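=== RUN LOG ===
request id: a7f3
mode: sequence -> structure
chains: 1
length: 179
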Amino acid sequence: MSDDVKLGGLAWHLALLSLTAIGGGVVLVAPDVHHYVSVQNHWLTDEQFAAMYALAQAAPGPNLLFVTLIGWMIKGWLGAVVVTLAAIVPSSCLVLALGTVINRHGGGEGRWAGALRDALAPLAAGMLAGAAWTFLSVAGAGWRGIVLALAAAAAAYATKLNPLWLIALGALAGAMGLV
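=== RESULT ===
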């Protein structure tokens, strides 16, 4: 646990990021959280950050669980609670407010909902691509890893293949030393 952690600054940073987390909590990983806790403040190493994310993804529950683990790693229980609330509350309030506006103007099939969906879809795709690039960089993936990630993304987009098969194929490629 770090004594030099400014928990208020971390909470504020996560609260602002949560308002831009279009595409789900996983996009919070996109360079910002990693850069803030590992590069800028040196509270976690790249390996610790990647391990916290991997552990959160392996555990049942929301994808956003990784911020709880990061908070716990750098400031104990207080850090876990504060960063979790900071990452969840602002975006939840925004979604509730947008849902209210959309329901007042024609519901999920109205003009507002369609415009919002059309505007946010490319943003979500870009943010997910940024998150993937961050993980490829932190993991030290070479060109083979990048090609494998792009192939998996293309297969997920173009087919109805269960993502677990793609994960299994990626694990097999790693176990065989192909990436």
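=== NOTES ===
The longest helix spans residues 65-104.
The mean pLDDT is 81.
=== END ===
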